[in-house]
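Reminder to self: tokens first, then the designed residues, so the page reads top to bottom the way the pipeline ran.
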């Protein structure tokens, strides 16, 4: 039973999208006497399949002793803003919906996920950030959109 669970977790971790991020900055929000302060972190994720799209995600980062050793569960509070940094076009074969970024937000079973949705009717890429858990997800979410260049 434990071997099967470990094998399943290994497959899920290997199948998750590659994490390509740059920490842009952070702001301390709660003073902690022991360990690092709680903070809001801003990170940039460049879409690995769509050139010239950068997504900025702000998220809560739990400090204290548990945060310092990596055992804290970060709250499911975040925001996303994606921007075109040049001409944006959908590459051939881009799926309608695809998970493009994933970051762990607890020691076990919880992750922040960014999903790209191609709105073909309006020629726009929609990016949705959610919190996922193996047992149940979170209703907290944030959405942004990036227009595609006109095909002429």
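Designed residues (152 positions):
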């Amino acid at each position: 039973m434990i071997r099967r669970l470990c094998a399943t977790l290994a497959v899920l971790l290997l199948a998750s999208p590659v994490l390509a991020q740059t920490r842009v900055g952070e702001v301390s929000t709660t003073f902690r006497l022991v360990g690092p302060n709680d903070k809001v972190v801003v990170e940039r994720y460049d879409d690995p399949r769509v050139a010239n799209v950068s997504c900025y995600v702000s998220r809560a980062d739990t400090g204290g002793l548990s945060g310092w050793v990596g055992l804290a569960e970060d709250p499911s509070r975040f925001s996303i803003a994606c921007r075109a940094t040049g001409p944006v076009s959908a590459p051939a074969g881009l799926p309608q919906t695809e998970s493009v970024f994933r970051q762990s937000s607890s020691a076990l079973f919880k992750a922040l996920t960014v999903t790209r949705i191609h709105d073909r009717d309006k020629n726009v890429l929609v990016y949705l950030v959610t919190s996922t858990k193996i047992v149940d997800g979170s209703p907290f979410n944030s959405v942004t959109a990036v227009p595609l260049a006109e095909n002429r």
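The longest helix spans residues 2-15.
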